[in-house]
Specification:
There is one protein chain. This protein is mainly alpha-helical and 247 residues long. The chain folds into two domains: 119 residues, no CATH class; 110 residues, no CATH class. The chain is built from eleven helices and five strands. A three-stranded antiparallel sheet has the order 3-4-5. Strands 1-2 form a two-stranded antiparallel sheet. Strand 1 and strand 2 form a beta hairpin. The longest helix has 26 residues.
Length: 247
């Protein structure tokens, strides 16, 4: 567990640099997801040394314009996360011409913002690129996931469909979901799916009508989901060869 897990687990606001970052509720899900792309740009994959050496806030300032409205998007994301009116959030430069954010009377510089960006994403189940993994490998894993989903005809339902899945699988009602945090909604949906498959596979195994050669295939629905994320991914080219009959 890291130092912020307590806040994430119990949906508490995370204190940082004199402000509180609150987990966003499902009531703001659409608004949040529409604007969150301002925090998810993989800038370090851009082959430009000047961009790579910038911190993320400097990069946003350098590319924001009337077409992409990145700073306006950031204003809304920060307002949702801090519960501070967006009129009290502004952008500017310090006396060294470095970009800063002013939230009420608090000044956030580029280094502070790196942590704030990470917390907002972790707090709301937004996946950032893992820069400890080489870009080529990240691209390969992403390609493998896409191919696996395509070959299994798997496509995530709409937000409405996801809400219905939780409604029919739990005792929750619409008001419960409306007031859930996005993080808990995502984790609940994942766990509902895993539990259903576990029950199906376990029933099939116990019936004696089906036998799984790999007994470890049936994993308990309460097992760690994060550790299994890439475990079953096979390189895309080898999957394609198997499906096409090539060796």
């Amino acid at each position: 567990m890291n130092s912020r897990d307590f806040f994430y687990i119990f949906d508490k606001p995370v204190p940082i640099n004199g402000i509180l970052l609150y987990p966003v509720l499902m009531s703001d899900y659409i608004l949040f997801n529409y604007y969150i792309d301002c925090l998810t740009i993989d800038k370090n994959s851009i082959p430009d040394v000047n961009i790579i050496t910038m911190n993320y806030l400097e990069y946003l300032f350098s590319i924001s314009n009337k077409q992409n409205n990145l700073l306006e998007k950031l204003n809304i994301i920060l307002s949702l996360s801090t519960k501070i009116d967006n009129e009290n959030i502004s952008f500017g430069f310090d006396n060294k011409k470095k970009p800063i954010i002013k939230i009420d009377d608090k000044i956030i510089n580029g280094n502070d913002f790196e942590n704030i960006r990470k917390i907002i994403c972790e707090q709301n189940s937004i996946e950032l690129e893992d820069e400890t993994i080489q870009k080529e490998i990240r691209d390969k894993l992403k390609e493998a996931r896409n191919f696996k989903n395509k070959s299994s005809n798997t496509r995530m339902g709409s937000l409405e469909d996801q809400i219905i899945c939780i409604l029919i699988s739990t005792s929750m009602n619409m008001d419960d979901i409306f007031n859930m945090t996005i993080r808990k909604f995502v984790k609940t949906l994942q766990r509902v799916d895993v539990k259903l498959h576990y029950q199906i596979y376990l029933s099939a195994s116990l019936s004696g009508l089906v036998e799984f050669k790999d007994k470890s295939f049936i994993k308990h629905w309460m097992s760690d989901l994060e550790s299994d994320r890439n475990e079953n991914l096979i390189a895309t080219d080898s999957v394609e060869k198997k499906l096409s009959g090539k060796k």
